[in-house]
Write a structure and sequence with these properties.
The complex is a heterotetramer, with two copies of chain A and two copies of chain B. By secondary structure, chain A is of the alpha/beta class. Chain A has 14 helices and 17 strands. In chain A, strands 4-10-9-8-7-5-6 form a seven-stranded mixed sheet, sandwiched between helices. In chain A, strands 13-14-17-16 form a four-stranded antiparallel sheet, with helices on one face. Chain A has a two-stranded antiparallel ribbon with strand order 1-2. Chain B is an alpha+beta fold. Chain B is built from six helices and three strands; from the N terminus they run H-H-E-E-E-H-H-H-H. Chain B has a three-stranded antiparallel sheet, with helices on one face. In chain B, a hairpin with a 6-residue loop joins strand 1 and strand 2. In chain B, helix 3 crosses helix 6. The mean pLDDT of chain B is about 95. The chains are: A alpha/beta, B alpha+beta. At the B-C interface, loops of B face helix 12 of C. Bound molecules: pyridoxal-5'-phosphate (2 copies). Chains B, D: It comes from Actinokineospora fastidiosa. Chains B, D: This is Iron-sulfur cluster assembly scaffold protein NifU.
């Protein structure tokens, strides 16, 4: 891959992240390869949130005093910048506490449609209706749909995964049919790195009139994503995976869908009129933001988006691609290591694959491998990474996952590879 | 004291002596609008004669800003063509959403220019627009007749 | 009331709150009387969150590396301190994004009980069952129950409010009956300041086997509260109203109830086992915390609780009581001002009343009064304060609310009273 | 390198050569336990003779810590009285939850003392307790027989 733009100055970026300067386990340099679970925050994000709290904090959309005005402006300005970051309009962006809540929001709103007014009819599900997911979903994009099916009597079906970690679309037309009401799938697998063919899935879903829900948790932080251009109906992502605060996520919904969808959480700030016996509800996005929201967290996420824009998402993606290729190449050279998900092609490159590299080591349990890596200062994740069915499909109970972000460099990859070899030595398998 | 900027004499006059207040018959369409944060409400009726706004009558409760702006509204639209009234509304909405950056045109907005100061207080913009939203909605409800 | 303890050194406390040092509207001192909507944060809370993010940030309960260990410890230590603050055990404390989510959690879990296993049978609701609330509830403790009733066919009933702003318990036995499955009520009204007789309500609910849900949003921040001693089944409160971060709230549930209640939000970290077709769930509190949680926010709320403990909740309550008495006395002297909720008795004191003072001014709309106060630097809230039915009951469309916290002093009350007089002058009614 | 503290030779020995592994008949009760974060699992059977733990047999997959601790478990409880076995379990649980602050008693825990280092790694404590939780659960399931 030829770099289209100037490469990242990782050393300069790293200086923005205070935590990367610390050491772990008796003075080892911290090699943080767990950004797929949660990313670290640059000073700019921490400062933005603090400045808000020290100067402008107030309840938003509820007060008429100056602080309330300023807080509301900061909150709505963040919404506008975050919306622009993913190519949509502000009224299509709902703040949630995390991506998980966003998916649950859609699932519960669909459940609520049965007892809501006629304008929500298109969301009603029942026996005979089908929801389609994939075998590579994070639990967050699987369990809510299982539960919705259980509550409504709808049927859950799913795409399989091929041995090399791609979605098996061979039965696309048999799986997504006139009975399908919703197709929920991940943009990029948090285990395999696999980037799924959104266009093909959306086209088929649209052809049968099914709604689409995109889990963009692992794509939006790592590459330019234009949700409107992708044509999905709903999408979710989390602030904490993209340099922003924990406690905030985003649900994107197409305007006309949010406009006719019944509410989920109810309470203050999402109403139009309340009487003791009944209530009516505000237009979106307020309809879906009950209670005092994640105010400073929205401001922090706005700053994270500004930071990513300044770096350039194209460059972030290229940088992570280079790290991924290096990791795959390095792991391929270590006997007894098997990578889950797409590997390098004959040219030493790989397409449609992001920077989550999960692997197993013959004779070393992932937990034990992780422990050795930790002892070397290398933070990876071990387990099934909230994708248990995928691990069962790949016939491994668990795996080691290294995941990359803009602050990682080739030295981090080298540390990972050294750690893997150390684990093999420690457990006597090399 | 920045208060005077917001509460221009014109606004206080309309508040104390609202024009066209009261609900009148006959009317072609009625709209009920409420401000969900403070409970202020307005019921507004529109009577058309062909393409002309023949009467606007209203009743409601609310703060000085919402009451005065509805009073100004009746001055600006009664006796005008529907298209004309709507374009006046657009100018007023633009002024209110302009954060104090929009220069109002007195020829178009007449007493409405007094609300330029309100536009600097985002929490009050909804107050100023309450009656206008009711007018817009009522016009839409006149449907085929317009 | 005689002070039992040394009074607060408000000037010293104020120095901990950076925002209180700022000015508004052309150099006016900020008089923040909107803590009932959201409180301000002391430096100690901001520092704790920042220290966590710069040193220990990681996904909790998901990783085996050192940062993940430290983050998990910080998160669970916060849970333990917050639980102790309200007299309960850590496994009875569920973190939510705000109090509103906590109430919705209980309401939705009850809705889910219909399709969950037999162990959840006691939560199932249907036609003939009744839910009892009060006319003074915040929308957050009203609309979720309206919606649950709508979804399940249960009936919503409610206690009325007396003219002086107390709960009308004269029909307690007629309202709470064998048909009642749940009684939800506020501990302290966010409009009237009224503190409700929890013991009487809990006793009656227990006598008929109904669950109790306490909205403790306005009590836990302002007075010592022992939820276990109160005997309620569930309670909620929000971090942002008690010096803590936005984006975090607490649901307390009695251990045996949380243990048999079906989940609400589903996804990662709340499961026991996941297969494509079905899942089983972790024990509480994890069962109710789906997805990456509000990690740094829990740490911040832990620091807020430490701060409040250091000050002493008894002293906070006494201090606010003194401010409330001063405000009520001062407002009573201004002709044309009417306070909603309990006023001073003959002895110039008032019992069972917290520091939210809402009032109306003859001839001056609350919005206009709030604007004049804002112009003087006094931040109050105007509107119905998310208690629209209560305002309708009191025959006012809206009110002005001043609400107090430990950082307010008698000078702030004087500014409020001056502002009210200024509003009367400005609008020519005095 | 702190690793050696955690992975004592005794642990690695039990991991490589587990004692009592395999599922055997007859048994009075069986328990299946899983670690929800990593998918490690154990199926464990208990056979009582009166008040004595006559046999513990097990099968499963997991890391060195969970495998070794289940192996140590069989050494510590087979042939002991139920009450005895449970108090040994309590001592082991106390050690594991002690964050490295609890001094293990070799007379009670024998090879189990090797896990003192694991107690310093909270994320691994669940691994060390997996087999023990299965043992406790299986014992409970023997019900009236015990
Ligand atoms: C009494 C009461 N209940 C519930 C709430 C809702 O709290 P939150 O918006 O933090 O969920 C509030 C505050 O807004 C309140 O004052
Ligand atoms: C692909 C994917 N989907 C969903 C989630 C859930 O995100 P959160 O836990 O922030 O809700 C994650 C991360 O944990 C993820 O990687």
């Amino acid at each position: 891959m030829t770099a289209l733009t100037a490469p990242l100055d990782v050393a300069a970026l790293r200086a923005d992240f205070p935590i990367l300067g610390r050491t772990v386990r008796d003075g080892k340099r911290l090699v943080y390869l767990d950004s797929g679970a949660t990313s670290q925050r640059p000073r700019q994000v921490l400062d933005a949130e603090r400045e808000f709290l020290e100067r402008h904090n107030a309840a938003v959309h509820r007060g008429a005093h100056q602080l309330a005005e300023e807080a509301t402006d900061a909150y709505e300005s963040a919404r506008a910048r975050i919306a622009a970051f993913v190519g949509v309009t502000p009224d299509e962006v709902v703040f949630t506490k995390n991506a998980t809540e966003g998916i649950n929001l859609v699932a519960y709103a669909m459940g609520n449609a049965a007892t809501a007014g006629p304008e929500s009819a298109r969301f009603v599900l029942g026996p005979g209706d089908e929801i389609v997911v994939t075998e590579m979903e994070h639990h967050a994009n699987l369990v809510p749909w299982q539960q919705l099916a259980q509550r409504t009597g709808a049927t859950l079906r799913w795409f399989g995964v091929t041995d090399d970690g791609r979605l098996d679309l061979s039965d696309l037309d048999a799986l997504v049919t006139e009975r399908t009401r919703l197709v929920a799938f991940t943009h990029q697998s948090n285990v395999l790195g696999t980037v799924n063919p959104v266009a093909a899935l959306v086209a088929r879903a649209q052809a049968v009139g099914a709604l689409t829900v995109l889990d963009a948790c692992q794509s939006v932080p790592h590459a330019p994503v234009d949700l409107a251009a992708l044509g999905v109906d709903f999408a979710v992502f989390s602030g904490h995976k993209m340099l922003g605060p924990s406690g905030i996520g985003v649900l994107y919904g197409r305007r006309e869908l949010l406009g006719s969808m019944p509410p989920f959480l109810t309470g203050g700030s999402m109403i139009e009129m309340v009487e003791m016996a009944r209530s009516t509800f505000a237009p979106p996005p307020q309809r879906f933001e009950a209670g005092v929201p994640m105010t400073s967290q929205a401001v922090g996420l706005g700053a994270a988006v500004d930071y990513l824009n300044a770096v350039g998402m194209d460059r972030v993606a290229e940088h992570e691609h280079a790290l991924t290729v290096a990791a795959l190449a390095g792991l391929a050279e270590i006997p007894g290591v098997r990578v889950l998900g797409p590997g390098l092609d004959a040219a030493g490159d790989v397409a449609d694959r992001g920077g989550a590299v999960s692997f197993v080591i013959d004779g070393v349990h992932p937990h034990d491998a992780g422990q050795v890596l930790d002892d070397e200062g290398v933070a990876v994740r071990v387990g099934h990474h909230c994708a248990w069915p995928l691990h069962r499909r790949l016939a491994v109970p668990a795996s080691v996952r290294a995941s990359f972000y803009l602050y990682n460099d080739l030295g981090d990859i080298a540390a990972l590879l050294d750690g893997v070899r150390a684990a093999q030595r420690f457990f006597g398998v090399a | 004291m920045q208060l005077q900027q917001m509460y221009q004499e014109i606004i206080l006059d309309h508040y104390k002596n609202p024009h066209g207040r009261g609900l009148r018959e006959p009317y072609d369409a009625e709209s009920f609008q409420v401000n969900p944060t403070c409970g202020d409400e307005v019921t507004l009726r529109v009577r058309l004669a062909g393409d002309t706004v023949e009467d606007v009558s209203y009743e409601g409760q609310g703060c000085s800003i919402s009451q005065a702006s509805t009073s100004v509204l009746t001055d600006l639209v009664v006796g005008r063509g529907v298209a004309d009234a709507l374009s006046t509304m657009d100018a007023f909405v633009e002024l209110m959403q302009g954060r104090g950056q929009v220069e109002p045109d007195e020829d178009v907005l007449e007493d409405g220019i007094a609300f330029a100061g309100v536009a600097k207080y985002p929490a009050r913009v909804k107050c100023a627009l309450l009656g206008w939203m009711a007018f817009k909605d009522a016009l839409a409800r006149t449907g085929g007749q317009a």
